[in-house]
Specification:
By secondary structure, the protein is of the alpha/beta class. It has eleven helices and twelve strands. It starts with a strand and ends in a 5-residue tail after the last helix.
Length: 296
């Protein structure tokens, strides 16, 4: 297949490319810059110019492909709500370009969207349209396209990591430096699901080749790693003290990330593994945090 990949020069997209090529697919990558074009050409990928600010440029890339993997997202979390709306517009534009075809589009969301109302790990068959996470806009856009018989498949991401980046933990390190300590709330027993980036890349390609229209897949390998263990790893890597903080100290130690401090973001992968035969092999989160270069 010829696959149109958004986010092709990004953290996850750049790992998806070699997996797609190994599986015999042709890849067209989205980029808005000359540097990005050079990066894609060096990786053996065709270049499509465009960006998230112009949904029509994404639609034209989708229309020329046999399938779409959409993992581009503006990660400016201080404008998170606006960026989820931008993602919604991108998904609708590409989906409409595929309407009336059987071409699949894989979109990207977060595992938290699948958290059951009664609590517990996120599961694939849960979609709460009133979920408080603004990223619900992504999944509602996908659901609207599914209702129009577009083949939409959703990959829900946990904290995706290697030894250079680790999802929300990367900005958490910056907040720890600013605050002078790696902190966790109360006993630090809230947990975040995690997966190595290479395992996540493999899942995207499995979902492309074997996935089902309308299905949602949890890209979590570890169901949950405790906040205390994460803070201790950050403290070990940075040399910062590690401390428990009370709720009234959250903003002091977590800054703009305060809303995430007490969130339990766990996720099961049992259904995803059973349906796709996904067998993760990468290092776990704490192993990568221990090997991370915190001076970078």
């Amino acid at each position: 297949m010829r696959v149109f990949l958004t986010g092709a020069t990004g953290f996850i997209g750049s790992h998806i490319i070699p997996v797609l090529l190994e599986h015999g697919h042709q890849v067209t990558g989205l980029t808005r810059s000359d540097a990005g074009a050079r990066q894609l050409e060096a990786a053996g990928v065709d270049v499509h110019r465009g960006d998230l600010e112009r949904p029509e440029t994404l639609a034209s890339g989708a229309a020329a492909a046999d399938a779409v993997i959409h993992c581009a997202f503006d990660h400016d979390f201080q404008n998170f709500v606006a960026n989820t709306r931008k993602d919604e517009s991108a998904i609708i534009a590409m989906g409409e370009a595929l309407e009336g075809t059987q071409k699949p589009i894989l979109i990207t969301s977060g595992v938290g969207i699948g958290t059951p109302l009664h609590g517990g790990p996120a599961i694939e068959d849960v979609l709460n349209p009133r979920h408080a996470n603004p990223r619900i806009a992504t999944e509602l856009a996908g659901a609207a396209l599914t209702a129009r018989r577009v083949d939409v498949r959703t990959i829900r991401l946990p904290q995706v990591h290697d030894t250079s980046r680790a999802g929300l933990i990367t900005p958490l390190v910056a907040e720890a430096r600013r605050a002078g300590a790696a902190a966790y709330l109360d006993e630090g027993q809230t947990r975040w699901a995690a997966a190595h980036v290479v395992d996540v890349a493999k899942l995207y390609v499995l979902a492309l080749e074997q996935g089902e229209p309308g299905a949602r897949y949890n890209a979590s390998v570890e169901e949950g790693v405790t906040a205390r263990a994460i803070a201790e790893a950050i403290g070990e890597g940075t040399g910062l003290p590690v401390r428990s903080v009370a709720a009234d100290q959250i903003e002091r130690y977590f800054g703009w990330m305060a809303p995430f401090a007490g969130l339990d973001m766990t996720a099961s992968n049992a259904w995803t593994r059973a349906r796709l035969g996904w067998e993760p092999t990468g290092p776990d989160l704490l192993t990568d945090l221990a090997a991370m270069d915190y001076s970078a």
